[in-house]
Amino acid sequence: MEVALLYPRLFGKLVHQLTALGSDAGRAEDYVQEAFLRAWQQGPSFAQLQEGQQWAWLYKTAHNLMVDDIRHRAAQPQPELPEAVEDDLSRAAVAQVLGKLPAETRRLVVMRYFSGFNSTEIGRKLGIPPATVRTRLRAAAALLRKLYLEDSKDSAL
């Protein structure tokens, strides 16, 4: 099938797959866009593949682009936080924001980030699948970010 016909059918699904793996939506769209561009550059050889093979090719290409980008960004030196920023992230501020989380969510965050358990160990202790632990931790991270930003904004007023 032609790349132009696959694009509207598969673009959103591929983006969803990459975001499920932890990529943010904007970057996932970039990876998928690049994968489609590379498929288009393949020309007739790509078009001759069966539909399932085309999906696999596009997914693998987008996935590899994501992994390469993550590795590249991880290899870049990280800027050090100024001392003032580190002070803002004091234990009291963290405890205050954590205190606003629902009890079960707070328990997961503490187990993962303060006690050092991985998702498999947490899942085993709580009797839930590791994938559920990871999903709940992603939701908790988003909520923590929102709460922290709200606290920061309130304290700036």
How is this structure best described in words?
The chain contains 9 helices and no strands. It has 157 residues and is an all-alpha fold. The longest helix is centred in the last third of the chain and has 27 residues, at 130-156. The mean pLDDT is 84.
What amount of the residues lies in strands?
Answer: under 5%
Number of helices: 9
| Structural class by SSE content | mainly alpha
Please tell me the overall pLDDT.
84
Please state the overall shape, judged from the principal axes of the Cα atoms: elongated
Q: Could you tell me how far the N terminus lies from the C terminus, measured between alpha carbons in angstroms? A: 57 Å
Helix content: over 70%
Quick rundown:
The chain has 9 helices and no strands.
Chain-wise SSE layout:
Blueprint: H1 3-20, H2 25-42, H3 44-47, H4 51-75, H5 83-88, H6 91-98, H7 103-114, H8 119-126, H9 130-156
Name the features.
9 helices, 157 residues
